[in-house]
Amino acid sequence: MKSLEVHLRELRATGRKALVPYFMAGVTPDWTRHVAAAVLGGADAIEIGIPFSDPMMDGVVIQEAAQRSLAAGTTIDTICAELTGASSGAPLIAMTYYNLFHHYGLRRAAGRLSASGIVGAIVPDLTLEESEPWREVCDDTDIATIFLVAPSTTPERFKTLASTTQGFCYASARMAVTGRAAGDGDATRVVNAVRATSDVPTYVGIGITTPAQARDASQRSDGVIVGSALVDTILRGASPADTEEFVASFRRAIDE
Amino acid sequence: MKSLEVHLRELRATGRKALVPYFMAGVTPDWTRHVAAAVLGGADAIEIGIPFSDPMMDGVVIQEAAQRSLAAGTTIDTICAELTGASSGAPLIAMTYYNLFHHYGLRRAAGRLSASGIVGAIVPDLTLEESEPWREVCDDTDIATIFLVAPSTTPERFKTLASTTQGFCYASARMAVTGRAAGDGDATRVVNAVRATSDVPTYVGIGITTPAQARDASQRSDGVIVGSALVDTILRGASPADTEEFVASFRRAIDE
Amino acid sequence: MSQRSDYMGIPSSTGHFGDFGGRFVPEALMPACLELEAAFIDAWADPVFIDEYRTVLQEFGGRPTPVTYLGRFSKKFGVEVFAKREDLAHTGSHKINNVVGQTLLTRRMGKARVIAETGAGQHGVATATAAARLGLECTVFMGEVDTQRQVLNVFRMELLGSKVVPVTSGSKTLKDAVNEAMREWVTCVQDTHYCLGSVMGPHPFPWMVREFQSIIGHEASEQLARRGVGVPDMVVACVGGGSNAAGIFAGFANTTARLVGVEAAGGAAVSNGSPGVLHGMKSMLIQSEHGQIEEAHSISAGLDYPGIGPEHAYLAAAGRAEYFGMGDEEVLVALQTLSELEGIIPALESAHAVAWIMQEAGKAIPRGSTVLLNMSGRGDKDVAQVRDILRGRE
Amino acid sequence: MSQRSDYMGIPSSTGHFGDFGGRFVPEALMPACLELEAAFIDAWADPVFIDEYRTVLQEFGGRPTPVTYLGRFSKKFGVEVFAKREDLAHTGSHKINNVVGQTLLTRRMGKARVIAETGAGQHGVATATAAARLGLECTVFMGEVDTQRQVLNVFRMELLGSKVVPVTSGSKTLKDAVNEAMREWVTCVQDTHYCLGSVMGPHPFPWMVREFQSIIGHEASEQLARRGVGVPDMVVACVGGGSNAAGIFAGFANTTARLVGVEAAGGAAVSNGSPGVLHGMKSMLIQSEHGQIEEAHSISAGLDYPGIGPEHAYLAAAGRAEYFGMGDEEVLVALQTLSELEGIIPALESAHAVAWIMQEAGKAIPRGSTVLLNMSGRGDKDVAQVRDILRGRE
Ligand SMILES: Cc1ncc(COP(=O)(O)O)c(C=O)c1O
Ligand SMILES: Cc1ncc(COP(=O)(O)O)c(C=O)c1O
Q1: What is the C-alpha separation between D97 and D56, in angstroms, rounded?
Q2: How many domains in chain B?
Q3: Which candidate in B157, B192, C137, D260 could, as Cys together with C113 as Cys, close a disulfide (CB 3.0–4.6 Å)?
């Protein structure tokens, strides 16, 4: 079992619901300070978005963030360089599209991520069926490959995905891309479908934009992922202190 | 034999080459004074153009004249009214397209023209084959129906046309519409083709724009028709006196 | 319903259909008309020529065009409508049928050049197309106003290697382009064929063009028979000069089918015109009280013609075919309706026939009737214009 | 020349053609891909479905399209060129073959709505057309830049009853329209089919679209056989996503014919690209050194795509087909040359294939070879653009 999953299972065992904020790497020069601030604010793990030109699973906010970051010259290498040494105090999970790893070289990419402290990867366009080469090279590192499940996922696929995912299972609350619809939609049904076949920690994401929603969703699951809502504040000029408060507000709601 | 032809044969017998200028009726308010002036200048007969919206056989000058005349409200009736009583001293020949007569009623049109002193008609789009109804109604009047022959006319058609035309035979010197190409082109050949089958007076038209051309053409035929060159001067503002001098200049050249 | 067995046969030797037709041209053109008549009679009796004409239309022109059952449209209007899809022919309308025939005939007559008139440009583009294929020189006369309205069609003709001459006389539109083409033809008749674009002009054009277009009707008749529809109750086509209508009527003239031609209300030569002589023929024309030819006015350039082919004038007089006018408004609605229901954007011309069916379904067209509609052309050429009109109203 | 008997058959069960293809989509879409695969396999084995697909293409779409011998072009370039005339299909290109198949499948799956991406608008118009015919709701995603460049195609889609959504993300062009259509599909996959426009995307699209387009190659093969030409020495088609090329190649993949795909030089995914993953598939892509997808650049909007269908990537890797790039300049000349010599104005896309033949006649194409050219579409849509370019130089 990858260390990420060990960590997250332990967290769950303490009764604490996980809060996982998402950041677009490179979107501002001080993005790593935002990451650190989030941890201070109460984040349990951090998603690090690596910008891709064609983010098929993302809505306008993250698209915009990706474009800004790309325009600033962000690459896997620049991100890893900035992360290396900057201990954040919470597990880091890369989130990006498969082409970047494919183009970088799977083995090389896994190695580079791992070397800079990343312990998980979410690749939304990497289907279970196509994931073997990637999972194989990850086996030589401590990177957990996290799969998504969705309201449209069939019972059979729930089973395979829940048993293959590492670290946690990412439960899309809605049939939507990031940042598009708000609310936790089908979260209960999706989480329960995972739980029916596996005891892997299951976090709800996609559409969690307010502390109240986060609280509701976390009550039905093991944690929540907050993406576009946070990225949006950073795009509008939020400081690391703002980020800390933003995350803290979610923390408080969840822990209420 | 129609009186026009009697007259023109007599003219030929005197050794005089016929000079037939063309006027667009109604193109200026004083157009009948131009007609009278032409007679003073030495015209032997006058072509009176009746304006038609779609003058298929005419070049730009006569098209322009027709449009001006139509814009001024010219109709068969207005023309006939203006001609009635105004004795010009030379035979008047109407020239227009068949639709106007057809629409007016063939019998009515022939009667109206005849009553206003017109003794001939040139209808360039009325082919020999379609001319019977018109010639029939003309038989009840003194209107001569004048046919054209052209460089493309076949030997057989030369024969029929020359034997059917009344008054004179209109020999197109060129394959062209009025006012387009200058010079007498195929005049000799066309005139000779008519003469080979008939002794009807044969006049050359289409392309006679200068006194010198008129002289050349008249030497090979029984007379010439001058159209666009004269209409052009009127469009440019020539006075009846100018017209008299214009016609006289052609007269002198022909009689030289 | 009158039903004689001799409609749309060979006209009289002088080219008359009843009181209409004939030849009204300058003597300079008579020999060319006679030569053309002889050449056409000869070619049209020559299996080699006919075979080449058919082969070119098949392998180059895209024939046979299909007959499409308009299911949703039929359901909505309660009549069974089948569309003969001339919009799918090369260059986008039935015009190609005629120009393929005439250019092959041009070559057969040993002429190296064609001239043509065009209004919106459809016939001009078709002629330029057929001429390019045979390497014939081609000059197209187009009213100056139309060259400005239809810059893209001018460019198309130029791309196809043709020369486009703007006509500045008269109203600077289609009828003047015909005049100018005739004037030009006088000067070059020796080596040039005048490729007239509809069933109009002096004999043999109305007959010849109808023959070249009759492939539409013959195909459709066979297609409907094969589909088990048999003879439709009604055949409906738009009428400018009348070539697409003549072409489709030809397949049904001697059947029980009612034949309906739909003119633009602003150019309805049969409904609003009177007999007259223009462009080499005697026919029905829109003219002033003094016999001056009037300009037609229609949203569709292809129906903007003040006359109609003489055979139509005859069919109307004989009671064999009926002609109605449709206004621009109804035509716009018809274009939109057919597009939305069937995925076929009709030419504005063809939309006149659609509009008439929409108006008369359940009235002049009894419920459940089978109707064959001639989709004479595609609407792509009209989309910019329709857009401007509809946007202008918003 | 390699000659195996198993090219262009059924891909692996995971949708792979050799190293390429597969499925790279959000999990939310996986069930829809699987459902679609099952539905397609079922339909494609059902004679009733196949018969309806063929009948609609015949009676509505204008199939079979003819094969035209390009006599004057052939003579000039010393090779025997036959053109498969997809330009004569309804809506003006081969795109109709695919959308007829996919919309029939949509109805069969019980879905009431389709979405589609479009670049210049050809696939969008085709989808809107096929959807209108079946009464399906239709939304088309189009880069905002493209909606401004192609206002008339936007209006055409609207006339056909579709909604056009301008895409403002990324480069605001075709690849972003695909992304946006995918994003939309995630939200409505229950009742909506994504009608993809080329042999790209996740399995089963590349295979399914090729099957729907293979009617081009099968028809052509039969037509050439009937004409006594037999198997041509070479089959040449332009390649954007690669659907028209796949369609015509499919008729000749297991013959001796050389297969040549011509990409836009500014979007030559095979010649200048590298393997990668985009839009649900693994294929050859134009990408930066960091794996960011680059914008393609071509005079022809339909070839402005940074990828190529995965089966082409495979055919190239396997050496069964060759791919070359052609520049805008040569393409413009080719469009003019074909128009003047043959009376066929090709789409700018198709003109890439023409340009390659002109360049290679007597070189890569030995003198006297028989060449089958896929005339994937008509140039009417491009005439305004070509005019502006050529006029701009005067
Ligand atoms: C599509 C279409 N239909 C009809 C017409 C009218 O001509 P006709 O009445 O000769 O068929 C035209 C003329 O341009 C046309 O383009
Ligand atoms: C006429 C034409 N040809 C070719 C293409 C390229 O697509 P594909 O490579 O899928 O045939 C397009 C795309 O719009 C097109 O319109």
Answers
A1: 9
A2: 1
A3: C137
Q: Read off the pLDDT of residues D334-366 as tens digits, 9 standing for 90 and up.
A: 999 999 999 999 999 999 999 999 999 999 999
Q: What is the pTM of this model?
A: 0.96
Contact D170, D177 (CB under 8 A): no
d(CA D134, CA D105): 11
Q: For residue C302, which ligand has an atom nearest its CA?
A: 1
| Active-site residue identified among A47, A184, A186, A222 | A47
**C319: exposed, middle or buried (C-beta count within 10 Å: 0-12, 13-18, 19+)?**
exposed
Domains in chain D with CATH codes? 16-56+94-205 (3.40.50.1100), 62-93+214-391 (3.40.50.1100)
pLDDT tens-digit series, residues B131-170: 999 999 999 999 999 999 999 999 999 999 999 999 999 9
DSSP percent split of chain B into helix, strand, coil, nearest 5: 50, 15, 35
Enter the ipTM.
Answer: 0.95
Contacts of A68 (CB under 8 A, 6+ apart): A24, A27, A235
Give contacts of C287 with chain B, Cβ < 8 Å.
Answer: 99, 103
> Which of D310, D341, D314, D332 shows the shortest CA–CA distance to D379?
D332
Residue A193 has pLDDT above 70, yes or no: yes
pLDDT by residue (tens digit) across D371-394? Answer: 999 999 999 999 999 999 999 887
Task: Kindly report the protein residue whose alpha carbon is nearest to atom 10 of ligand 1.
Answer: C243
- pLDDT reading at A232 higher than 80: yes
DSSP string for residues in B87-150? --SS-EEEE--HHHHHHH-HHHHHHHHHHTTEEEEE-TT--GGG-HHHHHHHHTTTPEEEPEE-
Q: Identify the sign of the CA torsion A123, A125, A131, A133.
A: negative
The pLDDT > 90 percentage for chain C reads: 94
Q: What is the pLDDT of residue A160?
A: 97
DSSP B158-179: HHHHHHH--S-EEEESSSS-BT
What is the residue range of B157's domain?
3-255
In angstroms, rounded to a whole number, what is the distance separating the alpha carbons of residues D17 and C132?
Answer: 43
d(CA A187, CA A195): 12
Q: pLDDT tens, C55-80?
A: 999 999 999 999 999 999 999 999 99
What mean pLDDT do residues D226-232 have?
Answer: 97
What's the CA gap between C121 and A83, in Å, rounded? 67
Strand (E) positions, chain D? Answer: 16-17, 20-21, 67-69, 80-85, 113-118, 137-143, 163-167, 192-194, 234-238, 258-264, 274-278, 281-285, 321-326, 370-375
Cβ atoms D177, D141 nearer than 8 A: yes
| C-alpha triplet B25, B31, B32: angle, nearest 5° | 95
Residues on A contacting D at a C-beta cutoff of 8 Å: 52-60, 63, 67, 70, 75-76, 97-100, 102-104, 124-130, 147-154, 157, 161, 172, 175-177, 180-181
Number of helices (H), then strands (E), belonging to chain C: the values are 15, 14
| Mean per-residue pLDDT, D32-37 | 97
- What average pLDDT score do residues D88-103 get? 98
